[in-house]
Amino acid sequence: MRKKQKSIQKVLAVTVLSLGILQLGACGNAQHKEASGTTENTNHQSEAALNNKAEGSSDTKADSMKSGSVTLNVMGKDIVYNKVPEKAIAVGYDNAEIMAALDLQDHIIGLTGCMNQPEHCYPDLYEKLKNIEVLPDGKGKGVPSFETVLSSGSDFVYCLSYHLTSDYIAPEKDFDDNNIKYYITSGTYGDKHDINAVYDDIRNIGKIFHVEDKSEKLVSEYKAKVDGITEKVKDKKPVDVFIFDFQDKAGIMTPGGNVFQNELLKLAGARNVFEDFKSDFDVATIEQIIQRNPEYIVLVEYWEKDEAQKKIEYLESLPELAEVTAIKNKNYIGITGIEYFPSLHNIDSIERIAKAIHPEAFK
User: Fold this and answer.
1) pTM score, two decimals?
2) What are the Fe/B12 periplasmic-binding domain coordinates in residue numbering (predicted)?
3) Among the residues of 26-68, which ranges form H helices?
4) What is the C-alpha separation between 272 and 264, in angstroms, rounded?
5) Distance of CA 129 to the CA centre of its chain
């Protein structure tokens, strides 16, 4: 468990050295474009809210009056939430959107972008979030400092696993010492790296805020959409895919076989050509990319506009990669950071990848 957390932290540290635009890694996003050109937004807009708009803020206020403690195991530790949080900070629009989809936006007093940009949010959910204060960056881009958390009077922080370190917000002990509860996106630690981690997060936020009925409805409808896609490709032969996360001096950083992103590829009917990498994320050398010869390349966009296109230009500038099938055939698929890490948007990356590599299944 701790080993995985440290592994992710190591990746983030490499990111800092490798990309000036990725300040302290794992938090940022860019304009949503396909690598080969501007694409139609396939975020399904109001589908992200999954029909939860009907419940109003008055219900949220009533929810906050509910009592009863909830105990959840977070990163191997039992945390007791003895009251509904009233002053939550959501680190990342991905986490903030889950709260908004459950009509919990009135509980959020501040948020940060993390790896996401507002334009990548579902419009109906961003409408609920747009007036919430965007907190200043701390040690990492899109991540608040612990001083900001304390000065805000927050009683709850919803973030990713590597944010609970002295390199980002603060270690768990600092939260405990100041009686600030936290919840950690489950797909970023431990051994649960499939789409069920997202379902768990939705359910657990529902339990913490006592809106279990809404969370179960959201999970049910989200799962039905994911299952609808995976059903179409379940009998298809997996297509070899390489994920270009970011450029490193020694090569290109890419996920291994034991992380959430690898499972997204599987759901889309793809095979990660570097699934044999033991670490969560590692560097793929140019020689290894040639040897693995992927049929498609997925390019992740974070903060920088047209980042996917710039990654394509880099790949195509290397003569030694000219005969790699994906590059030779210009088989590129662009996804954004909010679609790449656990969120309500994972369905969009699964669908986009599946339609690109198995188009016949969607006719």
Assistant:
1) 0.82
2) 87-361
3) 46-49, 57-64
4) 10
5) 18
Q: Is 62 exposed, middle or buried (0-12, 13-18, 19+ CB in 10 A)?
A: exposed
Task: Identify the pLDDT of residue 250.
Answer: 83
d(C-alpha 221, C-alpha 198), whole Å:
13
Single out the residue of 200, 190, 181 nearest to residue 75, CA to CA.
190
- Write the pLDDT tens digit of every residue in 64-102: 445 579 999 999 999 999 999 999 999 999 999 999 999
How do residues 114-171 score in pLDDT, each as one tens digit? Answer: 888 899 999 999 999 999 999 999 998 899 999 999 999 999 999 999 899 999 999 9
DSSP class per residue in 20-32: TTSTTSS------
Q: Helix, strand or coil for residue 254?
A: strand
What backbone phi and psi angles, to 5 degrees, belong to 335? -135, 160
3-state helix, strand, coil in the chain (%, to 5): 45, 15, 40
- Interaxial angle between packed helices 196-208 and 212-233, expressed in degrees from 0 to 180 and rounded to the nearest 10: 170
How far apart, in Å, are the Cα atoms of 221 and each of 103, 194, 230, 290?
16, 17, 15, 41
Q: Give the pair of three-digit tokens for residue 320.
A: 């030694």
